[in-house]
Design a protein that fits this description.
Blueprint lengths: L7 H9 L6 H4 L7 E2 L5 E5 L4 H6 L6 H12 L8 E4 L13 H18 L3 E5 H9 L5 H4 L4 E3 L2 E6 L2 H6 L3 H28 L1 H11 L6 H6 L2 E5 L16 H17 L2 E5 L9
Parallel strand pairs: 2-3, 2-4, 4-6
Antiparallel strand pairs: 1-3, 5-6, 7-8
Helix pairs in contact: 1-5, 9-12
This protein binds uracil (URA).
The site of uracil has 11 residues, from loops.
């Protein structure tokens, strides 16, 4: 029997009262997550920083501003998605999350994910990617590929903060967010086509007993991986520092050209994640 989903407000109350690890002593407040509770896309970062700890909301600092611009590249705004972190409390001095903190904190993330039930989980950086996919393979290899965690499609991307230190990562981040936008459009189109064909398909399934692909069988199959070809020329790219509305429309028209150059390659499934 499947476990019932816990309402988000209930999970939030549990997080607010959590004192399972010493990070509780140093926090101003917990950072539960924010956004559309029925989002198709759930974005998972690492842990709150100073600004997030003060404001109680994920990605409100410099990396958050850049994340908003990257979402626009995918044709999304912040309110479309749900944004959460692996850890709900700020590690002192923004140090890396420790294994025992991840172990104690991630049951909240797991329940959030089950309740929101997104189509795509976008993992930002190594910590969320390794946790969600239960892998040691790093983000440098996995970014821009579609993976699976149970029923969820997982799309690892570099952490936006990486581009604040290394400008060359911007091209890669923007390409991956453009690919995410394309994957969302393709999947919405496929769902629309499936809906339109529903009566005929239903009759067919009833005749031959066929059923939709299960997460388990998807895990055994080969992953279809959309990997963009390396670097489109930066001179043609919309500048991430332009204002959002211009940036957004530029980004949308830019996407049409870059997406045509995307190639689809097949990679063997690297693992089947078991956290969901
Ligand atoms: N970096 C993260 O991973 N999460 C935040 O909320 C802010 C910065």
């Amino acid at each position: 029997m499947t476990k019932p989903h816990i309402p988000l407000d209930e999970i939030r109350a549990q997080v607010e009262g959590c004192r399972k690890c010493p990070l509780a002593d140093g926090r101003t407040q917990t950072v539960f997550g924010v956004g559309n509770p029925e989002a198709r896309v759930m974005i998972i970062g690492e842990a709150p920083g100073k600004n997030e700890d003060l404001q109680g909301e994920p990605f409100v600092g410099a990396a958050g501003k850049y994340l908003n611009e990257l979402l626009a590249v995918a044709g999304l705004v912040r309110e479309d998605v749900f944004i959460a972190n692996v850890l709900k409390c700020r590690p002192p001095g923004n140090r890396d999350p420790r294994p025992e903190e991840i172990e104690l904190c991630t049951p909240y993330l797991r329940e959030q994910t089950r309740t929101i039930d997104p189509e795509f989980i976008v993992t930002l950086g190594n910590f969320s990617t390794k946790f969600i996919l239960k892998t040691d393979i790093g983000i440098t290899r996995l970014h821009g590929t579609v993976q699976r965690a149970g029923k969820f499609k997982v799309f690892p991307i570099f952490h936006p903060a990486a581009a604040l230190y290394d400008g060359s990562k911007r091209v890669v981040l923007e390409d991956d967010f453009a690919t995410l936008g394309e994957l969302l459009r393709q999947s919405a189109q496929a769902a629309g086509a499936a809906d339109a064909a529903q009566p005929a398909q239903g009759a067919h399934a009833a005749q031959d007993g066929s059923a939709p692909e299960s997460a388990a069988s998807a895990g055994q199959a080969t992953a279809q991986v959309a990997r963009r070809q390396p670097s489109t020329p930066t001179s043609n790219r919309p500048s991430p520092t332009t204002s959002r509305s211009t940036f957004c429309s530029d980004a949308l028209s830019q996407k049409k050209t870059t997406v045509r150059r995307a190639e689809t390659i097949a990679l063997p499934i690297l693992h089947v994640a078991l956290i969901y």
